[in-house]
Write a structure and sequence with these properties.
The structure holds 2 protein chains of 2 kinds. Helix content of chain A is about 0%, strand content about 55%. By secondary structure, chain A is an all-beta fold. Chain A starts with a strand and ends with a strand. In chain B, strand 4 and strand 5 (about 45-50) form a beta hairpin. Classes of the chains: A mainly beta, B mainly beta. At the A-B interface, strand 4, strand 5, strand 9 and strand 10 of A face strand 5, strand 9 and strand 10 of B.
């Protein structure tokens, strides 16, 4: 049982490049979300999904797109990376009250 | 908009001390409150979850309290150990079910 799997663990992008951060879960949780963590600011919600085909914006959605075609996968897309998107990204799933977090993707945009 | 604040930002204590970490939130209409632990370069591990109707939860040497009316929660760690060194995050789950995090308290327990 892998829980929540995020790939890649590390990534360096050049400004303007695009990429997709992958998040996969094997717990059949309906609720999935993406957070970014910056020094001194805690985690901030980017986008979330309450089930396949349904997504919504969180606190800081600008510059990011998501889709949810299956229960298992919730990819986060950066269409044109900017240095301000340098951060650690966490994917989380939830059922009931509990949250399960992935181990994170450390992204640097140069 | 729900805002979560954690004080202090960093704390250093000698081994064996009892300590309290503080969390405050601006909107008392919460679904629940959760304390997480984060080790450097790692993800988050849930420690304690308190429902909005509860006053406290305990797990081993950890005790978390919740005072919804005043918008405060505390995490009490008894007999601290070097292995407790980590960043502790408080998160409030709002009525719309998304979570809002504090910036965390970085705890160092010195042997």
């Amino acid at each position: 049982n892998a829980g929540v799997t995020q790939t890649p663990k590390f990534q360096v992008l050049k400004t303007g490049q695009s990429m997709t951060l992958q998040c996969a879960q094997d717990m059949n949780h309906e609720y999935m979300s993406w957070y970014r963590q910056d020094p001194g600011m805690g985690l901030r919600l980017i986008h979330y999904s309450v089930g396949a085909g349904i997504t919504d914006q969180g606190e800081v959605p600008n510059g990011y797109n998501v889709s949810r075609s299956t229960t298992e996968d919730f990819p986060l897309r950066l269409l044109s990376a900017a240095p301000s998107q340098t951060s650690v990204y966490f994917c989380a799933t939830s059922v009931g009250d509990g949250y399960t977090f992935g181990s994170g993707t450390r992204l640097t945009v140069v | 908009k729900q805002e979560v604040t954690q004080i202090p930002a960093a704390l250093s204590v000698p081994e064996g001390e009892n300590l309290v970490l503080n969390c405050s939130f601006t909107d008392s209409a919460i679904y629940n409150l959760q304390w997480f632990r984060q080790d450097p370069g790692k993800g988050l591990t849930s420690l304690l979850l308190i429902q909005s109707s509860q006053r406290e939860q305990t797990s081993g040497r950890l005790n978390a309290s919740l005072d919804k009316s005043s918008g405060r929660s505390t995490l009490y760690i008894a007999a601290s150990q070097p292995g407790d060194s980590a960043t502790y995050l408080c998160a409030v789950r709002t009525q719309s079910l998304d979570m809002r995090f504090g910036a965390g308290t970085r705890l160092t327990v010195k042997p």
